Amino acid sequence: MNVGVCKLTLRLPENQNLKGKRRVVKSLCERIRIKFNVAIAEVDNNDKWQVATLGITCVSNSNRQVEQALDQVISYIEVSRVDVEMVECEVEAISGF
Fold first, then answer.
1. pLDDT averaged per 10 residues in sequence order, the chain, 97 residues
2. What is the reported pTM?
3. How many domains in the chain?
4. 55 contacts 43 by C-beta, under 8 angstroms
């Protein structure tokens, strides 16, 4: 079993308050969850209205599939969301469970 874990820190420059941040993050997480079949949640910076940290994970029998799935999610965010800037991205693949 192979597990892929990704931690993304995003900047939301057009955001004005926590309510707006929740709307953007909830929409982004829901679209990614449906489109890529991965687990995703906001994991840090909950009280900062212009910064969001998301944790994304997926499981597969192939390390290559895990890396491809996370790369697709990252590319999707970079290309399709003009209201979000990626500040930091950490990806780790864990194999051998």
1. 92 86 90 93 87 93 89 90 85 83
2. 0.84
3. 1
4. yes
